[in-house]
């Protein structure tokens, strides 16, 4: 794995741990499970996207087939998890949604930290 990919996943895991502490603090197990499930799905989808991109780049004429099948797999997993959670826990399915944005938040944080580091290096 690339260094940046590892940093994104590490940051996502740290954010997930913060969410876990938040879930313990609010003492609602359904919301806690939803947030953690969303974070897990987010990380899984990101890793699947990474693998799909590598596969598409290596393949020649089958690139569109690999790209579309990877897209369908990732969104099927997301919809299935939200659907199952919604079926068993009803309105608490809204707790999954913030967890799905963990990777995006992780990428933004990593880019922000890198930008701040470059600004600090320029000042010296």
Q: What is the total domain count?
A: 1
- Note the total helix count: 5
The rough form would be described as: flat
Distance between termini? 32 Å
Radius of gyration: 17 Å
Low-confidence stretches: none
Strand content: under 5%
- Decide which structural class fits the backbone: mainly alpha
For the sheet with most strands, the description reads: none
**Total beta strand runs:** 0
SSE series = HHHHH
Q: Provide the residue-averaged pLDDT.
A: 86
The helix fraction, in percent, is over 70%
Q: What can you see in these coordinates?
A:
- Helix 1 (3-26) runs antiparallel to helix 2 and helix 2 packs antiparallel against helix 3.
- With 124 residues, this protein is mostly helical.
- It has helices spanning 3-26, 29-58, 63-89, 96-100, 102-123.
- It has one domain (3-123).
- The model has no long low-confidence stretch (mean pLDDT 86).
- It is built from five helices and no strands.
């Amino acid at each position: 794995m690339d260094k940046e990919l590892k940093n994104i996943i590490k940051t996502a895991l740290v954010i997930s741990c913060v969410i876990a502490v938040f879930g313990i603090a609010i003492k609602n197990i359904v919301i806690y499970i939803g947030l953690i499930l969303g974070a897990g799905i987010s990380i899984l989808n990101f890793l699947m996207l990474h693998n799909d991109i590598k596969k598409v780049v290596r393949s020649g004429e089958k690139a569109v087939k690999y790209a579309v099948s990877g897209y369908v797999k990732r969104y099927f997993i997301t919809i299935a998890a939200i659907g199952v959670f919604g079926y068993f826990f009803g309105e608490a399915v809204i707790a999954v949604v913030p967890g799905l944005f963990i990777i995006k938040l992780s990428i933004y944080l990593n880019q922000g930290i890198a930008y701040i580091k470059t600004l600090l290096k320029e000042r010296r």
